[in-house]
Design brief:
The protein has six helices and 19 strands. By secondary structure, it is α/β, with parallel strands linked by helices.
Length: 279
């Protein structure tokens, strides 16, 4: 049975404004580091960078790998930090997350784990691409059923699909082992719905903006940098990039078009260490 969505009345009915944050990899200890980067500090720096813009976003999408150590405290830290933005935050799990702990400890008046969001002329679907105990992803039939039922329930709304894993290969051979294993089938199936305009994910710790061609003109495919460490693009072996942590802003127009940009923390404060303890 299709569950009721979270619905928003958007002030500017022509545009839905989103901020995406992804892969913060937080620890119970706020001083802990991942490959030389203090993930709590880098997450805070990303949010501060956004706040400095005074951009009027309508909501936040958090696309997984909230925790690095599966601790209740890591989810509590996320909840407390994200509350500073005073915006509704919709989240989904990544391969480093425990969905049960997420639901128990990501609590607050602005935190939502529901899979359907209605805003303006758009329907946003927060999909679960995780496979318990594995770093790679898979889009299960239950998620396809959700997509189908949601579109049938709101056939006149444009659709943004949001997930953790990448449905396309990113030309990093070590990282592509951990993609969505049925990504080709996923894109082929969702491309049959003209309502689907975009797909958004995290996981790969780098920026991707490309198109999946369809009869209706294409699905905009987007990956977003982590709020902590970055993976070097097109590397055959595990390698870190020196680019700073970042986030993505998206504007979903009432005509179905998507405008988006990635923004990063200014300066060079966060420098990863390839030789530090592993990812």
């Amino acid at each position: 049975m299709l569950k009721e969505p979270v619905s928003y009345s958007i002030a500017d009915t022509d545009v839905v404004r989103l901020i995406q944050v992804t892969d913060p990899h937080l620890f119970a200890d706020p001083e802990a580091k991942l490959l030389g980067v203090n993930t709590a500090a880098s997450f805070q720096a990303v949010l501060n960078t956004y706040l400095a813009t005074e951009y009027p976003a309508d909501m936040i999408l958090a696309t997984g790998d909230i925790s690095q150590d599966y601790s209740p405290q890591s989810y509590q830290h996320f909840s407390a930090t994200i509350a500073e933005l005073n915006l509704p935050c919709h989240y989904l799990p990544g391969n480093h997350d425990d969905p049960r702990l997420m639901s128990l400890h990501m609590q607050g008046p602005h935190l939502f784990g529901q899979q359907r969001i209605l805003a303006g002329e758009w329907q946003i679907l927060m999909l679960d691409s995780t496979v318990r105990g594995k770093p790679g992803g898979y889009m299960a039939e239950q998620q396809f059923a959700l997509i189908d039922a949601a579109i049938k329930a709101e056939p006149n709304k444009h659709v943004l699909l949001v997930m953790h894993h990448n449905p396309i290969l990113v030309e990093c051979s070590w990282l592509d082992q951990h993609c969505m294993s049925n990504g080709d089938a996923f894109l082929k199936r969702v491309s049959q719905y003209p309502q689907v305009k975009g797909a958004l994910w995290g996981h790969v710790h780098q920026t991707i903006d490309t198109q999946y061609p369809t009869a209706e003109g294409g699905i905009y495919l987007m990956a977003t940098p982590s709020t902590c460490i970055q993976f070097k693009p097109k590397s055959s072996y595990f390698a870190l990039d020196g680019l700073q942590p970042g986030y993505r802003l998206l504007e979903l127009a009432s005509n179905g078009s998507i405008q988006t940009n990635v923004y990063r923390v200014p300066g060079e404060k966060f420098s990863p260490d390839n030789d530090a303890s592993g990812y």
